Amino acid sequence: MPKATNSDHAVRLTSLRAQLSEAGFDGFIVPRTDEHQGEYVPSQAQRLRWLSGFSGSAGLGVVLAEQAAIFVDGRYTIQVRQEVDESLFTYRHLIEEPASEWLEQKVQPGMKIAYDPWLQSEAQVKSLREGVEKAGGELVAALENPLDQVWSDQPARPSSKSMPYDMAHAGCSSKEKREEISRSLKSSGADCAVLSLPDSVAWLLNVRGEDVAHTPLVLSFAVVHADGEVQWFVDNEKITSETLSALDNMVEIAEPGALEGRLAAFAKAGKKVLIDPATCPERVATVLEQNGAKLVRAMDPCQRPKARKNPVELDGLRASHIRDGAAMVRFLKWVTETALTRAGTDDPVTEMEAANRLLEFRKEVPLFRDLSFDTISGAGPNGAICHYKVTEESSLPLNRDEIFLIDSGGQFLDGTTDITRTVIIGAANDEMKDRFTRVLKGHIALATAKFPKGTSGMQLDSMARKPLWDAGLDYDHGTGHGVGCFLGVHEGPQRIGKNVSPAPLEPGVFLSNEPGYYKAGEYGIRIENLMIVREAGKMVGVEIPLYDFETVTLCPIDLRLVDRTIMTAEEVTWLNDYHARVRRELTPLLDDEHKTWLEEVTRPV
Amino acid sequence: MPKATNSDHAVRLTSLRAQLSEAGFDGFIVPRTDEHQGEYVPSQAQRLRWLSGFSGSAGLGVVLAEQAAIFVDGRYTIQVRQEVDESLFTYRHLIEEPASEWLEQKVQPGMKIAYDPWLQSEAQVKSLREGVEKAGGELVAALENPLDQVWSDQPARPSSKSMPYDMAHAGCSSKEKREEISRSLKSSGADCAVLSLPDSVAWLLNVRGEDVAHTPLVLSFAVVHADGEVQWFVDNEKITSETLSALDNMVEIAEPGALEGRLAAFAKAGKKVLIDPATCPERVATVLEQNGAKLVRAMDPCQRPKARKNPVELDGLRASHIRDGAAMVRFLKWVTETALTRAGTDDPVTEMEAANRLLEFRKEVPLFRDLSFDTISGAGPNGAICHYKVTEESSLPLNRDEIFLIDSGGQFLDGTTDITRTVIIGAANDEMKDRFTRVLKGHIALATAKFPKGTSGMQLDSMARKPLWDAGLDYDHGTGHGVGCFLGVHEGPQRIGKNVSPAPLEPGVFLSNEPGYYKAGEYGIRIENLMIVREAGKMVGVEIPLYDFETVTLCPIDLRLVDRTIMTAEEVTWLNDYHARVRRELTPLLDDEHKTWLEEVTRPV
Description:
The structure is a homodimer.
Chain A: H1 6-23, E1 27-31, H2 47-52, E2 60-64, E3 68-72, H3 77-83, E4 90-93, H4 99-106, E5 112-115, H5 122-134, E6 138-141, H6 146-150, E7 163-164, H7 167-170, H8 174-188, E8 192-195, H9 198-205, E9 207-208, E10 221-225, E11 230-233, H10 241-246, E12 251-254, H11 259-268, E13 272-275, H12 282-290, E14 294-297, H13 303-307, H14 311-342, H15 351-363, E15 368-371, E16 376-379, E17 402-408, E18 410-412, E19 415-416, E20 419-425, H16 430-447, E21 450-452, H17 457-469, E22 480-482, E23 491-496, E24 510-513, E25 516-519, E26 523-526, E27 529-535, E28 546-551, H18 569-586, H19 592-601
Parallel strand pairs in A: 1-5, 3-4, 5-6, 8-13, 11-12, 13-14
Antiparallel strand pairs in A: 1-2, 2-3, 7-9, 8-10, 10-11, 15-18, 16-17, 17-20, 18-19, 21-28, 22-23, 24-27, 25-26, 27-28
Helix pairs in contact in A: 4-5, 11-12, 14-15, 16-17
């Protein structure tokens, strides 16, 4: 959408308040999420951004008649100040100063605060309701979204064409997947499950689309039954003849508007319906319960099977990472050499130029479809901003003897990539080397971890942090997230981090390994490879089912930032073996000039 | 209680069934726990043992008219078969085959299954209720326990004399503690809290008693108010004049029978009452809710402050561990020398003799009051049974070239100890050394860990397991539990293990560090020291609040089981430094003979 001004936002806020007053509401909740709780939201659903100007990927607005607040997390405390007019919205911390508390303080007895029950889960609504009720107010569901009513030029809902995801890449038919889901529904005691996560629908039906940026999704709902039937609630415009002919006769296509009625019918028929309380819109639960359904609240049944990649998906992931690695090699040679040559001139390489150039290299890669997220291209101090997004205004030059961090990925038809490399333009100082090597030691500790069946990512997280903790350092983000197969670059349920993971690591799960270190105002370091959980190779005397990781990302790690003296012999062996593998796998895809460069930067240390 | 026979249990089961039938019930739930959910249960409340013969520390019985089942966890699968007659009770796994599932299968529509709402928490009842209701039955609270009605020689409730725990040991007055609790109640929005955990009451009021074995408790309830008032519901017989004069005038003593009426009165007065859903009897919640109280469900407010030991408690803990360490040195010299001399004769040292001898050494230690738990004295294969309890029948000889594991502790007026040492009687083979050294490496990794504020024990657990995981080995118990100060040898809320810890590690928290390895049928290895969480010492460049551990247990680790070649230089330094500290601290308490021995067994490697 075109950039709005502060006065635009003032006007929008005034018109929303007028609409609220007309509808008999004293306030309204404006989440950043849409019905599908996804990371990428189509422009039609970017309500918080339209209202406030805030463009971050997580946040919440609350509008009362006289005041309003915007709630963002630690990643966005600076950005919200740049994007949102403080005279319109008070800034609050999403976690430490939650909206429920603000509502408890600001709501007056008798006030009616409205929310859109399609945009929030039961859990989200529950916390807000407690705050409003403590203050003596009432939280009420607005079935017509008052903001949509005043957003006169609201874009249309996206209606990209869908495409079948063929067996050569999916590796498993929708029918087989539904047989697996059927077994899991039966064991949860449910007759059917509502799927509100579009990546679950995409996986289950073997379809892809282009409704949002960077994730090849069709925004839609589905209901999957224990007998293998599926109702797919999707805009008819999105259905191509290719998609249609790839679906089998157990899949019924219905208009999105039919969802509520069908849910009510299932409920009245006495079905036990599974919903995922973490992500399912509250409205779905309400319709089901009002019509007498027994609800089974449990994790979306597609989440764990989707996370366990099948052999065809694994082969695709490996192949896409080799091609992507070769593009990264071309980029790294270009950026380290060119940035150094042009450093200090009046035409330095900039973050923006680097990101664009990397995109050009990726576009040459076979089966490339899109970036898997907006490239994070951070020079010097911008590298210390974990979720930095380069703009024309923010773009810094890549200076001599400064660190440059680039976190990027591609959507390839056979796999999704996500890689971070940190390089020095020129020469590194001792502190940079120490910090980089500690991050590398943590990365290696995780990459080489062996662990028993049943282990979750929370248990492994400290291995990646230990070399930093030993020096009194840390990083304020997770260590690993799940990655889809030509799907979301962030997917659940497994993760590696300080917080509880909702599922154990299982063979086939595909995760990132990305410890980092950030020195505010100076530089950022992150080393990210993707890894597959697998059964550990045979060893003498093993007494338990043992898993380990196969690293899939292949790309050099900058040796000029490595301090070999603080590494163990085993760590050095890992680094040399990894680099030998990078050379072996990527060399066939490179010309002589790049082969020579790769030989040099992956030399044994 | 005297050992009952299978036919006694058959008679008891028959009489319970007759009583149930008379009361109109089709079944009854018999938990192992009492009202206070404690590890040690007085004989009056050992209902499951009386009924079934099972003497383990966790379990559940379910009695229906025609069948009955006993549910025990992995620790007790062998023991339950030895103690409980299979013709009376079906054996089931407490976690993997939960009672709720068994009820769902066995209960017939319309059946009324009774439970005692004082003996189970809301969470425990909820799961059972779901099982019964899925089967079409009803789970009903029995306010008169039917088992007590047929247990003709049920012992009286314990009524030991209480004693004040004086400031010289407690370090903080009850009044000061209540001021802290008051602040925490206010921040949770509660007017008062029900304390059902007797160690919370003991800590809050600075009282101790002897109602159960090995933990100096007074079994009682209390209600603590935000204004600092306390009602202590305790049998008048337990109150000595010393206790009475140590209490201040904000503490009211009431008979236990008055609890329900007072809770109802608080509820009617509109009080917001905090209860801990994990441990509070369901009956307490019911009485409060039926009388209109608003409940705040949160952790018992004494748990976290109690876990953070104050400086006086810390000094007492350190002092008691030095004295206990000297007793352990006397024991270890005696057991390793004597067992070897007598091995192979017709008068070998036995597990039972060893445990008794250790008790004799401890009894000589100043301020000794009791063991802190039944000594685990396991020779050879018995060492591989994690919660082994030696009896005359099970007691094995300590044979030459076998491993002997001893896990024991004392209740001293100034502190509670818990220590495990594993020694070789004679000479160890290579496998034993490898396994012992891996356990030691894990122990050292945890003992030397540095970690940021906010870290929980689940995050650190893998550090202790990594050297075992690397070889495909593991142990099936937690790595660390909280320990009280002249209180429970197992206390919450912090712990170190594979499961989620309900609270982060904070300075002053006192925990065990006890990785192990168990080879079924051959031997067990465990190395356990207690540690205090503290702020890490000053280091250059630290960017975050950093904590580490102070090891408090002082006692040699058997060098004959150490394989130095698989240890890092840092690990060897830790071991030598630890042994130097053991020598320095314990030598002043030892005679020349023991000094010489200690010098030898703590020599640098």
